[in-house]
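Tutorial handout. Part one gives the primary structure; part two gives the three-dimensional structure as C-alpha cells.
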Amino acid sequence: MNCNLARMLLEFPRADLASDDRASLAAHVASCPQCAAISASEAAFYGTLAKAMQSVPIPADLHSKLLREGFALRGARHRRQLYQWSALAAGVFLAIGVGFSGYLRNRPTIDTDAVAFAAERDWEIREAPVREWLVQQDLPGELPYDFDYRHYAFHGKGELAGRDAPVIVFHGQFTNEFGKVEIHTARVYVVEASRFKLHELKEAQASLVRVTVKSHPTRPDIAYVIVCTSDTLDPFLKRSIDPKV
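Part two.
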C-alpha cells in the first residue's frame, strides 16, 4: 500500500473498512512515519470530539420528542400518499363510470322481427341459386318437400345408377329424442324419364340409409330419389318456430 491510498483510507472510520484493508493500513502506518503522524492526529481529533459530545447534557424528553416528530413525519407522508392514491382511484373510477354509462347508452336494441326476416332472407338467398339452376336445365324449380335451406350444403351433378343426375345435398347436426347429437345427410336426386326407368323406382331401407321416391305432381317425366341417413326427412324440413308444434 502506498501513502496516497493509506491517507485516503485514514479519512474513513476503521469500522467501515474491510478487514484486509484495515490490516494493510495498519502495516503501512507502522512502517511510515508520515502516515503514522497523520493517523495519530486523526485519532486525537476524533477522541477530543467524542469527549466533547459526551460532556453535552441530553434533555430528558429528547427520546420521546424524536419519536413524536418521527411519527408525525411518517404520518404526514402516509397521508400524502393516501391522498394521492385516493385522487388516482377517484379518477380511475370516474373514467370507468363514464365509459360504462356510455356503453350502457350505446347498447343496441335487438329488433327480433328484423332478425327473423334477415334469417329468412338468408335462407331464400341460399335457395334461389338452386331454383335457378334447376330451371336452367328445364326442371321444376321447387323440390318435392319444403326443405330447410339452413342445412343446404351444395348442388351439382352426382352419379346415380352409373349416370350423372342433378343433386341437391343437405347436411346438418341434429339432436335425437335421447339428447344425443347426430350428423345426417340428405341427397335429393332429380331424375328424368329420358335417362332412367322411372316406373321401376321404389323406396328402400338399409341399416344406415333410407331411400325415398317421390313423383312430380304435374310432370310425370320427373321423379325425385332422396337418399337420407336419418330415419325420416323431418330434420331437413322447415318447421314452425312455435315450441308447441
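Part three, for discussion. The chain has a mean pLDDT of 79. The longest strand covers residues 163-175.
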